[in-house]
Amino acid sequence: MDLVYKHEKPLFCIAAILSAVFWVALTIGTAGFFLIYLPFGFLFFLFAHSAFISHLNGLVVKITI
How many domains does the chain fold into? Predict the structure, then answer.
């Protein structure tokens, strides 16, 4: 597969290394406490997203011909 940009693969490697360093530093720096709060944050996001979709569906007016 041809890449769009010639520097795409090296930039991806740099981004992957930087993100891995960030996550390792976050895990070590907080002694893993963020791993406890991560599922709660995901659940909050999940319920908020579901509530937003329900709100949008409640505002819909179905028009039939």
Answer: 1
